Structures are given as structure tokens and as C-alpha cells.
Amino acid sequence: MSDLDARINEHFAGFVVRKDLVKAVKGNAIVPTYVLEYLLGQYCATDDEASIATGIETVKEILRKHYVHRSEAGLIQSTIKEKGRYKVIDQISVSLNEKTDSYEATFDNLGIKKVAVDSGTIKAHPKLLVTGVWCIADVQYEFSEDARISPWILETIKPIQIAKVDYEGYREARANFGTDDWIDLLMQSIGFNPEAFGRRAKLLQLMRLIPFVERNYNIIELGPKGTGKSHIYSEFSPHGQLISGGEVTIPKLFVNNSNGRIGLVGYWDVVAFDEFAGREKTANKALVDIMKNYMANKTFSRGVNPMGAEASFAFVGNTDHNVPFMLKNSDLFEALPPQFHDSAFIDRLHAYLPGWEIDVIRGEMFTKGYGFIVDYLAEILRHLRQEDFSHRPDQHFKISEKISTRDRDAIYKTMSGLLKLIFPNGGETAEDVEELLRLAMESRKRVKDQLARIDSTYPEVDFHYLGTDGTKRRVTTVEEEEYPQFYHLKPALDPKEQEHSETSAGAGEATSVAEGEASTSGPSSEAGRPVKSEAKPLLEEGHHVFTEDRKGISYDRLFGPYIEGASKIIVTDPYVRYFYQIRNMMEFVEMVIRRKSPEDQVSVHLVTGPDDGNVGKQRELLDSIVDACVGSGVEFTWAFDGTGTAHARDIVTDTGWKIVLDRGLDIFQAPIKKDGFSLSDRLQEHRIIKGFYVTYLRAEQG
């Protein structure tokens, strides 16, 4: 057990479970994760291996006996008849039979209808009237010769969810975890191995939880298939409801005018729309109009009577094209149905989660560590919906007054959600707040920038905030940094104007960073190949910040022009130790070989630190680079730092340049081993980067 897992069990005893146990008990039972973890929480919420093994067998036996498979429905019905009473685990919904003035339940898997339900049960569990709810129920069978009376009777019913949660205890226990550990605990709670994700990737995953913790929060996530977009809304919480985008109607979502019964928004904390994208899809205009009003004002109308609700909306769907294609030819909302590709609807979205930054889910991404029983965490998040943390960042930063009220509200709601998730007990530092504030502002900026492309009446907005020292700190999106030549295009422009815009965007790419603003300008070459041009790029000093989780960065783009013409290059990086880090060094040498003229001789010397755990393997791999360079025109040498205290990470050339990197050559997120081929293994431009900066200095001034 890891140190984190040990502390999780110490401070949250009885409320956590080992996440890989879900697969161990699920078998062929088609039930949400929260149902299985509810059962595991009853019998396996411990770190004792013997108790876990016994608990797993108990849960398996409960599922074997009481979970209803559709194929075995007839057998279970027979069992209920013969025994008179039997406990089942099934998805149950209830409707009112107006002819008999009675409530009748339908068991989805068991296949029985018109099961008598008393009014007290409905008052205790009103969600049963709206949609199916997973429950543990005792069903009776009493035959009557009166054909109008159903033999099925619902004796007791218990929705599968934790009855009581100690919220103050949760807040107090949070104080025993650092920020990084708490984020990792939340990642494990939603089933993921934190080591498979970078910092930004973790925060993007946690953004999917904000609708559960914020009232009336509207988020959209569009991206490639297979990234787990809908998983969190279907499996994570009994307070969320996932529906297909094409199946929603006004009565189902808002209110049924015939009987006045409120729809999904009145009973669920989160209503998620799956498969929301699809340009060939159509939507009811009246539904879209009501949704827009609800998303803006938290109310909807039934006739003349306005009604309010607190449900958050999450829209998830697949994109048809990659990001540069969308930016060049349309916009990042291009996949939406025409009725929703509407500026008024889009403007009501508080955040756009960039689904293209999230990796396709693979087996090695799942955790074997401990996390909260998801139902327990769901209850905590539901409790937090009552609180408002939106103005806590104001003590550290001031959002630009040029940003509109709607934009500001969106940023504050996202900030409030992130703070509730990560700092429910307060105690966040200015650095913590700034990291989350930049993400919140970027998520809204992505919406606003696309609105400016879609509707010319929307002005472009300078998204920035001020520190306590009054310094302006500009916020950019990852796509803006990665594809500056496309990001600010206006697809509706005349082709000549378009060409002028592209030229202007390209000319502005090399601007340096001022007033704390992040920039990704710098030397570049297409697809990692050396720039073969008569006019060499103008090399300038400057400081450049690169945002985590973007792609399109290579050593050739960062260093190529600055090392060109050098005959001696010294790389100082104390952490060239693990295989992938030494592979980075090899790729740096390969870049030097590609850049130099065939007749030139270049020496590359590495100063690094020893890998105390496996220095023999480290030596072997570094020496293999020496051998590989024989006859290439590059002489590679290396040495361990004599003092053992070196922390500098820089590249110095005999042509007078010093390139300072806060992460050295280790700018790419560590690869996850898997069989077969992937572009990220072979091309640096297709790898996801860590957040880092690079500073170019004239060596004599460094």
C-alpha cells in the first residue's frame, strides 16, 4: 500500500474502497459503479486483505442472488411467487395510474409492471416518478382472482445511496492532505491512476465534477471518441442523470403541461446530454428557447407561471475534425446541431472543456489504489452545492473590469466549483488560486473567442487579471498558443482579408512576453524538420511560457535555430536518469545531427546527476548514445556533476547563446507503455508536454 493509500484509510476509514474491486465483483451485472461501490462500501471498506476477500465474496453472492438479469427475469418471478417475498436489485420507476388513483412501479430488468406502491414511499423518494432509480427492494406476490388487481406488491424499497454523511468530518480530514495528494485522492476516487496524468490533465478530469458541486452550472465537452466524456455522468453519482441528446423533450426535461409535473431539472442535480453533437441532428426550437432561458435565469415557464430549478447542464459529444481543421474552416462548436449552433445558446455556457486534450481511456489508466466510495463523495458534493466560494480569489487577484458580467459570472462559478473540490476547508495559497483562476478564465475564453468567430456582434475580449502588485497577467487558451495562425481567423471574411489576417497572425507570433503574459512564440520548423531557407530566422532573447497538455512542440522548434552553427554544445541537466529521459537526450543529439552540415564536427557534452537507484543502467544507456554517434559528425560525451549539487538546467553554445529551461530536456509527459505503434512515440510534435518555460539569453550577459 502506498503512503497516500495508507493515509486515505487512516483519515477516511469506512468511506473508501479499493477501486480495482469494482471489476472483481461486477461480472456480467450491468449496473452503475455507484451501485457496486455502495455494496463494496458495506463489506469491503477496509485495508485488511482477509476482510476484503471475504467482502468480495459476499458482494458477489448478493449480486448473484438478487441482481436481476433480463435473461433470468422469469426465474426470479417464479422465485418470488414460490417464496411469497424476495429481495431484488433493479432499476425501478413509478407512475400514477389515474384510473385507479394508485401508484404503480415498473421493474426494468425484472420485467414486471403495475406493482402496487404506497403513497408514503413516493413522498420519501419522489425521483421514482421522474426516471428509473437503482434500488434494493422487497417484492411480494399475492394472487387475486380479480384481474384488475396486480399480484405484485412493493413491500420495502431503498434507493442505493449512503444515508448520512459527516460533512464537517470531511472538511477536517482534508487538512491532513497536501494539495497534490488531495487531487490524487480525487483522481483515484473517480477511478484513475494519478501517475498516468499530468497536473493539467488531472484538473481537466476534475472539471467534469463541477456540475455536481455547483448549482445551475453549464459546461460543454467536445472531443474525440473514447475519452470517457459521459462516464462521470452515468456511473459516478445517484444525483446525476445521463440522457441521449436526441431523446429529450420539454415535458421530460422541464414540465408536463397536462399534469403540471416537473421534469428532470426539478429532481436531479445534474442533467447530462450524451451524444449531443451531430450536425445532422435536429432539435425542437421551443425546447432550445426554454433551455436558453433556463441556463440564463434558472427559471422556465409553464403558461404564465415561472418555475425555478437548480439542475446543472452538461453537454458531451464527439467532434468530427481535429482542432486546427476546426479553427481554420469553422469553429470549435462546429459539431453541434444547427439549432444549438446559436450564439445565444453558446453564450450561456460557463465553460468549454477541451476534450481533445484528454487521452483515450486505456486499461493502464485505471487505479488500483483507494478512493472515496463514489456515493459518499457524491453526497459531499451535493452538500457543497449550498455554499458559494466564488469570491474567495478576490483577496489575491482582480479580474479585468473590461470583462463582461456574464463572462465574469462564468469564471466565478468555475472557480467556486474548483475550490469546493480541492479546498473545501479553505487554506489555498495565491499560487493555488492563480492556477485555478487561469483554468477558469481559459475555459470561458474558449467560449467567448468562438462566439466572436460565429457572430460578428460579439467583440473580442482581452481576458486578463491583475495581481496584488497591479501587474497585468493575460490568459490564453492552449489552442491559441498551439495554432496562432488559425485561432483568430474569421471564417466569414473575404479571402483577401483572410490572407491578410493570416499574415498578421504569423507576424505577431514572435512577440516577446511582457507584464507577466504567457507566450509560446519562438523558433519553429514544420514537423520537426530543419528550416531550409536562405533567410535565417532572427534570433532574439526572450522568456516564453508553454502551457501543459498542448502538443506541437519539438526540440527542433525550441532549440534548432539557436544551436545551428555551434561546434560545441554543453547540456546541463541533473535529471537525465530514467530511460525516457535518456531517450530525450538521444533525440536532442539526433536534432543536432539533422541541423548541422554533413562536413561539420560538433561536440555535445552532457552534465547530469547519477541515478542512485540504478546507476549501472544509466551509464549503459548514456554510453549507448556515445556509440550511436560514431561516424555521425557529432561527438557525444557525458559526465556526472562532480559536486552532486547541481540544479541548473541549461544549454550553452560556443556561438554565444544560453538557453535556460526550468525542466531541462524533460518537457514531455512520461509515455505510458503499450503494445503497437503510436505517433507520440515517434514524433515529438504529437506528444503532450508538461508546463515549462524557456529563456533565451546571450551567454555573455547570462
UniProtKB/TrEMBL annotation:
Stretches for region Disordered: 491-531
Annotated BREX system Lon protease-like BrxL N-terminal domain residues: 10-141
Name this polypeptide is given: Uncharacterized protein
Organism: Thalassovita autumnalis
Skewed-composition ranges (Basic and acidic residues): 491-502
Domain of life of the organism encoding this protein: Bacteria
Domain MITD1 C-terminal phospholipase D-like: 552-698
